[in-house]
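Hi everyone, sorry if this is the wrong subforum. Our group has a chain we'd like a structural model of before ordering constructs, and none of us has done structure prediction before. Sequence below.
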Amino acid sequence: MNFIRLFRGSKTGDALKALYQWGRQISRYRIQRVFGALYPNVINFPVTDRCNSRCVMCNVWKEENVTDLATEAIAGILSDPLFKKVRSVGLSVGEPTLRNDLAQLGQVMIRKLPKLKGLSIISNGLQPEKVENSIKALAQVCQQHRKTLSVMISIDGIGDVHDQVRGVPKAFVRMQETIERLQKMPAISLALCCTIMRQNVDELNRIWNFAKARGLYIKFRVATRVDRLYNFDCTGGYTLNETQRHCAAQFLEKLAMTYEQDWERKLYYVSLRDMLVENKPRTVPCLWERDGVTLDAKGKIYYCAVKSKSLGNALEISAKKLYFQSANLEYRGSIKKTACAACSHDYTTLFTRRLLFQLLKTTYRKIILLPLLDRGMVFFAELLRLVLLEKKPRNKKLLKKLFVMGWYGTETTGDKAILTGILQNIQQDFGEVDTTIASYHPFYTRRTVSEIGNVKIKIVSIGTASCSRALHQSDLIVMGGGPLMEIRDVVDVLRFVLKGRLQRKITMLYGIGVGPLYSKRLKRVVKLIVQLADIVTVRDQRSMDCLQAMGAAKGVELSIDPSTVYLLGHPGRHLRKTEKIKKIGFSIRAWPRNYAATLSEEVFKEKLMMLVQVYAEVIEYLVKTQHAEVTLVPMNTFYVGDDDRDILEQIQAALPDEVKTRIVTGTGAPSEIAGEIAAQDLFIGMRFHSVVFAATLGVPVIALDYTHGKGKVSGFMEMMDQAEAVIDINDLTKEMMLEKIAGFSKKINVIGEQLMCMQSVLLDKNDINRHQLQLWFAAKKSGV
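Answer:
Right subforum, don't worry. Here is the predicted structure as tokens:
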């Protein structure tokens, strides 16, 4: 578990608070080891089995002849000494607000539980007025006794998706009204929660943005079998398939690294991600292992709210006797041994000594040790640079083992296509090669190799012994996938190249981009990388110019981005003829802050809002007046490098309800994205590879250059003889874009023909990449 990345996504105070909580729990559990089982400090209390929802992941609503426990009976149960240290009670399943005595129930709990700090309640929000009245009454009781009240509303999709999951017409509209009513109540803490399932996995980002737009915190969990929900026979209706698990895992990683501030939640999301796609056991501990008790609507006592059997009925036998009975404690131990490792439920607590020691070890390694080693490595590389600079081809040998590095584990759709193109070239010239990829997030790259149809590729985690071993055993080390630019991790590329040269491996920077680079230190690092590599080819003239300015262009060849190899063979590439532009694709990314460094933060935010409005107005005009079908295409669906869906959803939200657009869902597989782009009559792209995809596939493209006209987007369009199709984002207006689109509509077929005629140019430039490797390795034998 990468704790330092989690720390970077947290406020310092939150991290220190987590360490304090760890310390408290260490003390608490040391006491337990001496004196035996602890009294529970939290109750999960499903106060009723009645429910007005018809959810696909729950069968509570199917229960017949449901009778709620009277408040007097509940008071009797809570008078038991077992509950004397309870600090929190959660009211849940079915729909708690269907009880007409909720306020009285709150009074009972406050009176009977002397250590109680607060209550929490979860509701489906299907009856706005009733929910509001029930919560208001309960909130008044809590206020009178200075107890907190947390309210959570369930949301499982946007619009029709939520209705389908809940099985109730207009459930989403009603839930929205409930949220609006409750937001006017200052006495409560309001939040949202979402259960991830196959019906809403493509909606997760929209749900998240729905909550953020309303200033509400939201938590996510995965639908799972819970005995108290009686859902053992409906798992087939909500369980995730392989692709959906990866979509969910990407989203959970994003939450942990960019959104969540609570450390228990962070650790849960990372653990859940590993369970979904790595088949790893649960690593985050559960509160119910030691501290929790469940009391159901019939008075029965349980340990775990998910897997425990009933220990007995507290109306008949003392709850304390049931809880601490030696046979039952042994049963709780068996649950921990047999069920906890595979449990994906979101009941969590912070403490385990293993996690604490891992945190301290990782923090020391990442914050203190590695920065010192990085500085020493750069100094060492400069000392050895002259000794290691012999780049003459040695005796040719067969290429058997390939080691690929780059920004894998954070790859965009473009990076996936780069990898595919490199492997296609190598296979064509040298046959099947045993390939290993070094990745920052192996789970993500495993999905990539599955998408490109090459599951035999090995994935190793950067910084591990298996990574070093794979590099040592390789014949060729290739940097391909992402540019050498102003990010700290470019030092990792130097580390790989330096190790390769010291071990006399052949190293190649394969059709890479270079820049932007601002700091002297990273310019120095990139210069060393280029000088130490045996073979260097760059994808555009702008990259070559950058190297020349650093004095590092000697021996560098100008080639092409390897993704074009893959795209030239895509079945969607064809000469298109159209009389009218009917289908228009947009691929917009958030404007990176480092490309607008001269703007103040306030001006930059205003500019971003203005750009979203411009995009929305252009789309609205095209849909209403041109009757165009607009598709929004994300080229990146991972949090690193900005998830394109965030800004695309902002654009969608800025459109009138009658203007319909579609955001492409999924994990960004290159075949799927290329197919979507190839289906358009006109494409408007901002990311470099969105422009490369469109132009190479023969789709007329208008490029939005966010690098002041000096970067890779403009460079590629100039090479494709399409410089007039570039708009500098600093000058972008609605009128300018519509004028450009109108101009394209008059010569759309001519532009398409021009792009198709560039095939020979692209293939010639790709041959430079292939030729450079052929100088160092023997080509495959005929028939092999």
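For your construct planning: The mean pLDDT is 88. The longest strand covers residues 189-196.
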